[in-house]
Amino acid sequence: MSPRQAKRMMQRMGMSMNPMPDVQEVILRTSRKEIVVENPDVAVLDMQGQKIFQVTGERITEKELARAQPETRATIPEEDIRLVADQTGKSIEAAQRALEETGGDLAKAILLLQSEG
Question: With a threshold of 0.85, does the pTM exceed it?
Fold first, then answer.
């Protein structure tokens, strides 16, 4: 089958395939790695409203992604915040900040606020 015949048959089936010009790189990113296709040839197949991308390239590189550590923020009970505020004579906001800085350690938070004067 010649390319011309194949194109006609695709058109009869409601399909078209066209090149996508000027693509410099294609990046496929998963939760663990990134695949980069440099200088790719990309063709777009439009089939009944759905697009399918065909990617071929000269150079394909893979790299592992560093896993971001979820930020663990200590939940500080309201009564601990009030206790620190009462013991130091500081505001609730200052007591909460001190407890966050010390990871919820009551004694260290009180000492920190007392040392601030």
Answer: no
Helices (H), the chain: 3-12, 78-88, 92-101, 106-116
Query: Domain range holding 45?
Result: 3-64
Task: Report the pLDDT value the prediction gives residue 68, as an integer from 0 to 100.
Answer: 62
The count of domains in the chain is 2
Token readout for 6 is: 């194949």
pLDDT digits (tens, 9 = 90+) for 10-67: 888 888 888 999 999 999 999 899 999 999 999 999 888 889 999 998 888 998 888 7
Distance CA 31, CA 111 (A): 43
Instruction: Tell me if 53 sits within 8 A of 44, measured CB to CB.
Output: yes
Q: Return d(Cα 99, Cα 92) in angstroms, integer.
A: 10
The CA distances from residue 76 to 23, 95, 99, 117, in Å, are: 51, 11, 7, 23
Do 58 and 83 lie in one domain? The reply is no
Q: Same domain, yes or no, for 13 and 53?
A: yes
